[in-house]
Design brief:
This protein has about 550 residues and is α+β, with helices and mostly antiparallel strands. The chain contains 18 helices and 18 strands. The protein has a domain at about 95-315 and about 350-360 and about 395-425 and about 515-535: PPM-type phosphatase domain (Phosphatase 2c, domain 1, 4-Layer Sandwich). Helix content is about 35%, strand content about 20%.
């Protein structure tokens, strides 16, 4: 099978939080120490009222309905010990060191580290990392699901194959098709680098393979012998084709009842995607949605600055607002974006799946009427968005940014919006840069406008000193950044008590205070990049 994968080495998976929390003493925690943030809203905001019982994780739902107000009521939480906190934070961490020379090329990537921290149950984020074996380059991606995890799961499994095929020269595609046609053994397209918790849905592999094969057959017809694809066009084509296949598979259905239900779950949920393709000194970011990619640049004085390589596709992006308004009649100008959401419902303006914002009403009704009862009985799935006149309103077309790597470009951070809601991009770059170099650039101590006594100031300075000495308690830089994202207090330092409270919140409360967080951090080799730049210029 073409989906045979070479699994990269991984670290041992740690116990999950639920195992840690059993039998721990309960402690009263005052809610004012952790008031819900208003901007930590779910991507999809259904209008239909939900019953009190928890709906299935795959349907349109919201964990946010109580977040329209703040409360000062008393919450119950657990006090976790530092080892318990560490076990939770490290449960999904992964590291991979890239050989400097793989037999074909000298790599500009030294390695990457990733981690995930759930807020939803189950987590709706996904991550992927793979090496292209038929062409060149490393692929890294973060996928933020909404209305369930089905679409993010499918995209995390499939998108890299579509990109890898899109990058293949015509002759390689012909060799691939001939091997399948005559039943010859196939060598893998990708080498996956996966944590044990990252899985593939085995039941859908044949369906996925058939759709992928149809795609490369069309590419063979559209290209000429000797033709080598353009990376930008390959990324664009892969995103759009996969989204089209997700839509088509849901319309056609499947004789297998499970697969029929699965393809509809995938299509009616959604996922944003931020993907990096790194080949030598060429870095491409393809982004659709509100995940983000940020480059850490080391200045001559040793400090780090951030260079943003993606734009958020939401209501805070004036260009996106103008694009959407321009794609629909003037009569819809006041309704196409309401309350900073697409049709008043969806926060990201670009995403995979989400066929409720792409199909016409007749098609939606037809597919649902012929679909499984489980999907048809759900009110949110049947609900038609308000002011739905001229679909499609949503696209999975990515915005692609190319950057030529320089020796001072030291690392790349790709994160789901759960990271950027808690930390500013410059703060993210500073934390990562200090961790990787071991050099801490002390800024003047800021207290955020709070009045503090000399005793409190001394405590803060002592905490800063302790933080420097314990900075390397995390062996994974993504875990280190996640610790800051969840545990930072108003003074910008990691507060263990706050961290413990945030990690021990029960499922029904955790999503009120933060989103799922997924982080991939890639470290570059400045010596290799410098040599490649000189070779290109000579």
């Amino acid at each position: 099978s073409i989906f045979t994968s070479l699994i990269g080495t991984s670290e041992v998976s740690m116990p999950v939080p639920s195992q840690l929390l059993r039998g721990l003493p309960r402690t009263r925690v005052l809610a004012f120490t952790m008031l819900p943030c208003q901007h930590h809203q779910s991507h999809f905001l259904p209008v239909v009222h939900q019953p009190a019982s928890r709906p299935p994780s795959h349907i349109w739902q919201s964990h946010q309905q109580s977040r329209s107000y703040q409360t000062t009521s008393v919450l119950r939480s657990y006090i976790l010990t530092p080892p318990q906190v560490n076990s939770i934070l490290k449960a999904n961490e992964y590291s991979f060191k890239v050989p400097e020379f793989d037999g074909k090329n000298v790599s500009s990537v030294m390695g990457f580290e990733s981690n995930q921290l759930p807020a939803n149950a189950p987590i709706e984020d996904r991550r992927s990392a793979a090496t292209c074996l038929k062409t060149r380059g490393t692929l890294l991606g973060v996928f933020d699901g909404h209305a369930g995890c089905a679409c993010a799961q499918a995209v995390s499994e499939r998108l890299f194959y579509y990109i890898a095929v899109s990058l293949m020269p015509h002759d390689t595609l012909c060799e691939l098709e001939a091997a399948v046609e005559f039943g010859r053994a196939l060598s893998p397209i990708l080498q996956w680098h996966k944590h044990p918790n990252d899985y593939f849905s085995k039941e859908a592999q044949k369906l996925y393979f058939n759709s992928l094969r149809t795609y490369w057959q069309e590419l063979i017809d559209l290209t000429s012998p000797g033709e080598v694809p353009d990376t930008r066009e390959a990324l664009l084509s892969a995103f759009k084709r996969l989204d089209n296949d997700i839509s088509l598979e849901a319309q056609v259905g499947d004789p297998n009842a499970f697969l029929h239900y699965w393809v509809l779950r995938v299509a009616f949920s959604g996922a944003t995607a931020c993907v990096a393709h790194i080949d030598g000194s060429d870095l491409f970011i393809a982004n659709a949605g509100d995940a983000r990619a940020v480059l850490g640049v080391q200045e001559e004085d040793g400090t780090f600055s951030c260079h943003t390589l993606s734009n958020d596709h939401n209501a805070q992006n004036d260009d996106e607002v103008a694009r959407i308004q321009g794609e629909h009649p003037p009569s819809e100008r006041k309704t196409v974006i309401r309350q900073d959401r697409l049709l008043g419902l969806l926060m990201p303006f670009r995403a995979f799946g989400d066929v409720k914002f792409k199909w016409n009403i007749e098609l939606q009704k037809c597919v649902l009427e012929s679909g499984p009862d489980q999907l048809n009985e759900n009110e949110n799935t049947k609900f038609i968005p308000p002011n739905y006149h001229t679909p499609p309103y949503l696209t999975a077309e990515p915005e692609i940014i190319h950057h030529k790597l320089r020796p001072q470009d030291r690392f790349l951070v790709i994160g789901s919006d759960g990271l950027w809601e808690t930390l500013h991009r410059q703060e993210v770059v500073r934390i990562v840069g200090e961790y990787l170099t071991g050099v801490h650039q002390h800024q003047p101590l800021k207290v955020g406008g709070y009045r503090v006594t000399l005793g409190q100031m001394q405590g803060l300075l002592e905490e800063r000193k302790a933080r420097v000495s314990s900075a390397f308690e995390d062996l994974n830089v993504a875990t280190h950044l996640m610790r800051h994202a969840v545990g930072n207090n108003e003074f910008g330092t990691v507060d263990h008590e706050r961290l413990s409270k945030m990690l021990s919140l029960p499922e029904e409360l955790a999503r009120m205070y933060r989103d799922d967080i997924t982080i991939i951090i890639t470290q570059f080799n400045p010596h290799v990049i410098g040599a490649q730049r000189q070779e290109e210029q000579s």
